[in-house]
Amino acid sequence: MAAWRGAAREAVNLSCLFSPKSLASTTQAANLIQRRGLASGADHRGPRKVNFWEDPLSPSKWKEEHFVIVSPTGWGLLFFGGYKFFTKGKKEKKEEMTCC
Question: What's the angle, vertex CA 3, arms to CA 44 and CA 39, rounded to 5?
């Protein structure tokens, strides 16, 4: 959808360039100004996203990149910690061989 809008905008800009108006007119000069199309920096819809260390107890407010890094790391630590806790006392006893 956005690609069609961008193509339509370019077509309108090109049609303004080749219109029969004088190139010296101020309206034509205003039409030649480049607009920022898809170069906007951020999506400003919804609440502001924060770094995970600024609000560690609210994952819904975290930036997406931070959520992707922190969540699997936390689950991995939880599983590994549980594994180490529950297998702690089940070490194999090594029998020593005495010679002669």
Answer: 40
